Amino acid sequence: MIKAYMKLSLVLVMITVVSACASSPTYREADGRGFGYSERKIADDHYRVHFKSRGDNTSLAMDYALLRASEVTLAQEYDWFRVVNRETFVNRERVSSGTSFGAGAGYETIRDCTPLGCRVYRRPVRHYNIGMSLGDSRSEVEVVLEVRMGRGMRPEQEQTFDAREVYENLKPESSS
């Protein structure tokens, strides 16, 4: 019985680990908890773009923030943007691992009835339990870009990007 519980616990832990590894940030508008992209207009040619994701893939979060900056730039009918400020925040939380074992004893009441009457008696019983947690870690990455947009020829400055080129290179595969 203990082996069955251990096997079940191990299977559940493996399913959780595999599903956590398989999940990656999705490119979408921010939900109620702030996961996804959002932007705030500071001036006509000046925006602050956020992208927040679960996990610890900072390069993908940066790509998605740049992608959103390119989309905003194109939507505002500008040709290029320059990143004037960039911040990356990584929040990690670790839940420690642990195991628990338990054993107990008690009495079970048995009622045994026949056509001649019922007999009630108690007998001792033992029960065992086991639990284990391999721990868990949760991470969140948030990238904040402050961008200024422009039209015409892109200046040859650091952190200046052609909006159409960035969009074509970074758009998710399912986008057209």
What helical percentage do the residues reach? 25-40%
How far from one another are the termini?
54 Å
How does the helix and strand content classify structurally? alpha+beta
Uncertain spans:
16-22
Mean pLDDT: 83
Number of strands: 7
Report the sheet with the most strands, covering strand number, pairing sense and barrel closure: 5 strands, antiparallel
Keywords: Signal
Signal peptide: 1-22
Protein name: Lipoprotein
Region (Disordered): 155-176
Describe this structure in words.
27% of the residues lie in helices and 48% in strands. About 4% of the residues have low confidence. It is rod-shaped and about 100 Å long. The protein has one domain. The chain is α+β, with helices and mostly antiparallel strands.
Summarize the structure.
By secondary structure, the chain is an alpha+beta fold.
Key features of this structure:
rod-shaped; two-stranded antiparallel ribbon; 27% helix; signal; 176 residues; 3 helices; Lipoprotein; 7 strands; 5-stranded antiparallel β-sheet; alpha+beta
List the SSEs and their pairings:
Blueprint: H1 2-22, E1 36-43, E2 46-54, H2 58-75, E3 80-95, E4 98-114, E5 117-133, E6 136-150, E7 160-162, H3 163-170
Antiparallel strand pairs: 1-2, 2-6, 3-6, 3-7, 4-5
